[in-house]
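Entry 14. Ran structure prediction on the chain below.
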Amino acid sequence: MDSSELYHVKQQFFLGAYKALIGLSLPDTNSPDYIPTLVYQARAHIALNDPSAALALVPADSENVALKAVSALARYVSAAETASQEAALEELRDLAVEIEGDVEGTERDKHMVRVLAGTAFARAGEIEEALETLMQDTEDLEAVAVLVQIYLSINRTDRAKKEFDRAKQWAEDDLLLQLIESSIGLVASKDGYSNANSFYTEQLGNPSLSSPHILTARGVTRILRNEIPEAKSDLEESIEQQKGDGETLAAFVVAAGIESKKGEADELWTRLQTEHAAHPLVVDVARKADLFDECVAKFTVPPLAAPTAA
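Output, C-alpha cells:
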C-alpha cells in the first residue's frame, strides 16, 4: 500500500498538476518512496516538454530499471534524429526483456518499465508493440490507463471499455480508475458527458490541486456539451496557468470556431500552427488541405456552354 506522501505524488501526476509535482521535495534516498517519486517527477518534466530537466534529475549511474526506463523515454522525446530515437526505443525494448529476469528494482519498478516502454512505443506509432508490452501487466492500473488511451486514439472504444470493465474486477475504486472511466465517457458520449464533467468539477474543487490539465479537460467536456462560454472560461484560466499549452490552444480554436468568432479563431489557429506544428489537429488539417489540392488538380472544369442564337 502506498504511503500518504506517495499517494499525493501519484494524484498530482495523474491529474496533470505537473508544476506542483516537480516543486515537491524528494524523499530521503533510503526511503521506499524515493525512486517512485523521482520517476513521477521526471515524467512530469517530460509531460511539460522539458526532457532535459528529466535527464538532469535522474542519476546517470543508476542501475535501477525504472530510472533507466524514464531516462530512455526522456532521450526519445528529446531526440531530433531518427537514429537517436531508435536507440532510445531499443533500450526500452531491452529493459522490457531484462525485467523478466533478476534485475535491480522492485515489482513496482518493473511495472513502471512496461508503462514507460509502452508510452514510448505508442508515441513512435508502434501501436502493436505498445499493446503487447502493456498487456503483460494484467493487474497494473497504470498499464490499463495507457492501454485505454491507446485504444481510444485508434477509435477502438469497445476494447477500451473491455479493459476498463476487466480492471474494475480487481482494482480498487481509486482516482485513476475514475479518470479512466471519464476518458472513455468523453469519447463514447456516455450520459451526455455528465460523468466526465462531474469528475473534473470534483477534482477542481480540491483546494490542494492546481491543474491546468483538468481545466482543459473540463473545457473540452463543456464544448461537447455545447456550453461554449463556460468552456472558454475554463480554457482561458488554463492558458493563464500554463501559457502556450498545445492541447488548450487547440480546444480554444474549436470553441472560437463554434462561437463563430472568425477573427479570434484565425488568430488562435495561426498561433497553434506556429507554436505546435506537430499537433495532431494541425497535422490533420494540413493533410486534408493537401488532399483537397490534389483533388482540385485532377478536376477539369468543363467549358461554359455557348449561348444559342435567339
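The mean pLDDT is 91. Will compare against last week's run tomorrow.
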